[in-house]
Amino acid sequence: MKLTREVCAALLSVVACLSGCLASPPAESRPAGTLLIVGGGLDDDTRPIYERLVELASARGPARIVIATAATGPQEEEALDKTEALRVWAPGANVSVIRRETSTEESVAAIDGATAMLFTGGDQKRITERYRAGDGDSPEWLAMQRLLARGGVIAGCSAGDAMMGQEMLLGGSSAAALGLPRAPETGEEPPELGPQLGPGMRFLPWAITDSHFFERDRVGRLVAALERSGVRLGLGVGEDGCVEVDLATGEVRGIGISESLLVDVAHLERDGAALRGALARVIARGDRVSLRERLAARPRRPQAPAGTPREIPIVEPGQNRQLASWRLFRCATQPDAPPQRLALGTWQVIAWPAGEGDVAFDLEPCSKAETR
Q1: Could you confirm whether domain 28-296 is CATH 3.40.50.880?
Q2: Which three-class secondary structure state does DSSP give residue 8?
Q3: Residues in contact with 189: Cβ distance below 8 Å, sequence separation at least 6, in sequence order
Q4: How far apart are CA 40 and CA 42, in angstroms?
């Protein structure tokens, strides 16, 4: 049979359409679900975070929440604590616990029946060793992927925060991550220098996460980790802070009462021992920012600050000391603010307004006189 030019064109159009359909992943295989990344201090009365966890877990029917205690040393204590907290905020929810010792068969069955998971704190390496040994896809991890694919939620506190990304921080201080040893008079064994990184749980594709962020002055180690890994974005979450990540859209929303920090190293430059040109954005409760849009855009290169930096004071001990890093970035968000400086032993942060809600900052070694 001889085909006319019109028939041939129609057939080619159908083939092109089918090829396009095959090239696009089916809707059910695209990233879905939600992450709740909690910086630490998830006490029983942390209402906004628990309420949001329960709301997400109940979005498609009765809440069925699995607590995973793999990271925690005293697992029984943490399992009881989090179970009792969830009974306060979700009296009708079905709450179960999987421990490090729980068999693969039982763990997979629990996850496949869940609408939400909550990873407790401790040591993030225990989580990956249990569920992604050798950076491989275990049956439990595949069940977690199915949980997200059906619109479920995975929440993590402290260690459960740190394990979220493709890469994760294993530990260490900011000074050590920046390659700066502790002051010699401490008498402690010299720490391992450079950022300590390893494969994470691979739930969050766009950023490296860090916990206890402001309280433990971890901006230095997060920036060092971003430089080493080649990942552009970092999410530092403070204690009692929480960010919600919609995996379908890449949108981040502030949930907890404490604030978090989105770090962007698009223009980061190394200057000897210093790291210059980082950008940050404070994420308060209710704030929204798209990680996908941030990565697609190219922010303005920050200009060197003008004027003498204002010193951020530290008073020992207490909350003033713990939140000095937060005050530095919060003060630098003001459009007309002078540069802000915070000295933290062997290193310092200098931050200044960068426009459009961003803060620019440099990380530098302190002078020898200042470290004495």
Answers
A1: yes
A2: helix
A3: none
A4: 6
| Domain boundaries, given as residue ranges, for the chain | 28-296, 310-371
pTM, entire model:
0.88
| Distance (Å) of CA 364 to CA 76, 90, 268, 291, 344 | 43, 47, 13, 27, 10
Q: How many angstroms separate the CA atoms of 35 and 332, rounded?
A: 29
Q: What torsion, rounded to 10 degrees, do the Cα atoms 324, 326, 185, 196 define?
A: 170
Q: What span, in angstroms and rounded, lies between the C-alpha atoms of 224 and 244? A: 24
Contact 212/323 with Cβ under 8 angstroms?
Answer: no
pLDDT tens for the chain, 372 residues long, are: 444 444 344 443 333 333 333 333 333 445 589 999 999 989 988 999 999 999 999 998 999 999 999 999 999 999 999 999 999 999 989 999 999 999 999 999 999 999 999 999 999 999 999 999 999 999 999 999 999 999 999 999 999 999 999 999 999 999 999 998 765 555 566 678 999 999 999 999 999 999 999 999 999 999 999 999 999 999 999 999 999 999 999 999 999 899 999 999 999 999 999 999 999 999 999 999 999 999 999 888 998 888 899 999 988 777 777 899 999 999 999 999 999 999 999 999 999 999 999 999 999 999 764 654
